[in-house]
Each structure stands twice: as structure tokens, then as C-alpha cells.
């Protein structure tokens, strides 16, 4: 069966030196005083494996990414990288311990999805041969696809869970209790619940309650299907805040550009009106110029004719007194015209007068034409200037449009994204409401758990109990032979009491025994298991019955030595232990001993460099 192994945990940042801790493929013990980052290591591993968020601590400032090295069952080394702010998980097909400079080989969603394999849960489940396994989720035999988060509760135990009164492997949420018990059953028996056939509840009252819950769960399922690839509410709230800020910036920019465009359009409209008026005047002037040209030619033609008449009259003597040039009559015999009184020189005077008159009209016309031509040139220059200015304004308007169009498109996309986020946040609110409704159906929940418990094989529970008892005996735990796992109580029974009835020190030791025994049980029978176990503070609070808490702040040396001797000699998987106390005896060659001192000048201060108020002291030496 495939097993995973954690190889390193590394924090990287643009302006921070990488902070890293390496894990042995067998035993790693990280020990030292409180507040040196031991529990934070557990939290960070869980975060990269799909937890919703990463704990905030001062030393985390300056780091932007978490890298978790893994060795896959086939021997391939990979690195999972995730932003400290959450989001998707990048998968690199190599061992990376610095800020990645190349694109990831794959991008995996942090949230489990039954409809897609592109998520960290399905990827890891596939590696340990548990992908697409089904676990029962209620009394009607309805099933739910196993998530890797269902397994981390059984192999990655934080300090709070280690000492909690809740039974090992259970979260305390009654809605999930049936599923959690079914996940434990899957590891103990190797069989999932895919063969189950949904059946109605045997009693009418239960049917009624079941019908109510079914409606709620159906609605909840629909909501969950809509939220499969959606970020968690905290991330959505952060995204919404950033979106609103960005939308305000875009709106302000578009408003400013729109105002500028309006001003340019007004100016452009004025130029177009002026251009139309000038063109109309120019057209009228051109028509008038043509008419004046024709009139000028007429005047010049008239003057030419008058000049010809004057020259002919002089040559023929039309303008002198004497013998008539037409009939040869002497002056005495000529019949005088009353109007001209027989004075032939008046004809010449008339020609001269007409010539002067026509010449005067021509001169006036030429002045008028010159003025008209001057005005035409002014209009032509003004039209060119107006057209040039209008073209310049048009180009400026087009440039503004070119800037505004993408901004408008971005704004539309941002508004659509905001609407989508608000819709998803509303869906999360509905999910919370439906989950509260399900919690209120307490009687039905107890029936579901009882149904799931019935699926636990008595033989498997007996052999698992023996493994727990054997483990505790190796640790010198009192009355270890009588300790057992009770499938009805779903808890460890020690000293005829449930684990929850004991103090937190005993609860921690029993939880550690449960977790290690479950892993070894699977290894011995070649059944699926993640392959690694992480325990935070399994020993520090433990005191045997004959030792008071006031007598000594340290756990008994015999138990400490026995515990570390046992996990090195009798555990076939990978184990990582976080403890405040030292192992006392040197660990074996294949183990890694990492000591945090909480002293800046001695060894390694902690997992992350210490923040001292004026800056960050970079202390990354690893002991052991």
C-alpha cells in the first residue's frame, strides 16, 4: 500500500531568508520551550494539506508562501506550495526549498470536490489508494466521498486535539459524527460503504424526521455543489473588500475621463458649428466670385466695343462738323436733328461718357473682387485651422475612448465578480442555517451514529484494542493490559473510565497511543493509511498516578525514555513529535533531533526567526 512521507517544511518570502525544517523519513523529534513555533509547524503542515487558514503569529511577517516537501509512494519527491493567505495549492514535481521561480506543474484546489480530481484531497487520496472511497453519512445509508481532511484527524494531531475530551478521531460536531466513524471503520477494515443501499427509517417518527432532514440535506447538498470550488468565507470577505476598493478606483478614473471627454465634445461641437458656418460663407463667396468674374468680363467687353467705336469715329470723322460723311450733304443742306442739333461731336461725347461710366463700374468691381478674394483667403485659412483643431480634438477623444473602453470592461468584470462573491457569501449563510437545522435533529443523529458503529467489525476492534494496549505497555503506562477501544462508546476505556473522564495528561497519552496504534495496525495488515503521524505534545502534561503535578514539572523519565525507544523500534511509518521536554537519550542514526532554545545566541531560536521589535534576527541553524 502506498505511503506518504513529509520531507521538509519551508517558509519563503521576497525579503526574508527561507525558514526550513527537515523531517526524517522515520522519526523526527522537535523539542524546546513554549512559543518557539512547534505547534505552528503542525498548523502549517495541516494548512498546506488543505486546512482553511494559517495561524497568525508575529514571526510570520515577511513570509508569503509555505512549502511542504513530500515523498510519494513511488519515490518521487514533490513540493506543495501555498500562499500564507490561503487559496489554491501549487504542485512542483521537484524538491524546492526557496521561493519558486518557475510556474507550477499543477494547480490544485484546497477544497475537496467529488466532481473534479484537481484538488489536493483527491491527489493525496489517490497516492494512498483511497480515492473515490465512499463513507456512510447518515442512518439512511447515504454515502459521501472520503476526503483527505477525514484522514488528517486520524494522523495529524495538534496539542488542543491531543488533550481534548472529545474521543480520538471525532471532531465533536454531531452532524459529522457518522461520517467520522465510517472513516475510522474504513481504515480498520479496509472496506468502504459504496455497497450500501439507501433505505427508509423503520419507524414513522424517524421517517418524518428523516424526511425533514433529507429536505434540508438536499438543499444543503445543492448549496455545497455550488460552493465546491469556491473560497472560504474569510477569503471571500477579503476579496470583496479588495474588489470594492478597486471598483471605487475604477469608477473615479472613469468619471474623470468621462468629464474630460464631455469637455472635448463640447469644444469639438463648437468647432464643427464654426466650420459649417465658414464653409457656407466660403461657398457663397465662391458663387459670388464667379458672378463678379462674368460681370468683369462684360464690362471689359463693353469698354473694348466703346474703344473700337471711338477709334472708328475718329478715323471716319464722325466727331467733326462739315460735309455729312453719310450722304455728302453740305452743312447748309443738312436736316438737323432736334436732339443733337446737328452737332456730330455729341456722339463722341456720348462714347466718352459711356466709357468713363463703364470704366468706373469696372474699377469698383475690381475693388469688390479684391475684397472678396481677401475674405475668401481668410475663410480658407480659418477653415484649415478649424479642421486641424477639430481633428486634434477628435484624436484626443479617441485616445480617451481607448483608455475608457478597457476601464469600462474591467469595471463590468469587477462588478460581475463582486456580484458573484456576494452571491457565494449568501450561499454560505444558507449553508450555516441548514447545518444549524440539522444539528437540532439530535435523536436522528444518535440513530445514525449507532448505525455506523454497527459497521465496525468486532474482530477489527479487538485487534485494534490489542495494538493500543501493547503500545501503552511499551510506554510503562499503568494497567496497560486493561486498556481497550470500545466501539459503542467510540472511545478508549482505561481504568474502567472513558478517556474523557481522565485528566488532560492521560488524555494526551491515550490519544497518542490511539493514533500510533491505528497507523501500525494498518501497516501490519497492508491496508491504506497516509503513512505519517504528527503528534503535538503527547507527553508534557502526563503524570502517573503516584506523582503529583506539584512535585515536578517534568513527565517521568521512564515514560519519556520508553516512548522514544518505542517509536524508534516499533513503528514502521514516519512520525514527527513536538514536545517541550528533551528525549533524554540520544536518538538513533536514522532519527532527527531538532532543538529550539528560545535564546538568540544559543543554537536555533525557533522554527521562524525571532522578531525583536527592531527587525528580524535570522537564526536558521538546525541541531541534530
TrEMBL record:
The keyword rRNA-binding does not apply. It holds the Pfam family AAA_23. InterPro entries: P-loop_NTPase, Rad50/SbcC_AAA. Residues 20-228 form the Rad50/SbcC-type AAA domain. One of its GO terms (molecular function) is ATP binding. Keywords: ATP-binding, Nucleotide-binding. The keyword Cytoplasm does not apply. This is ATP-binding protein.
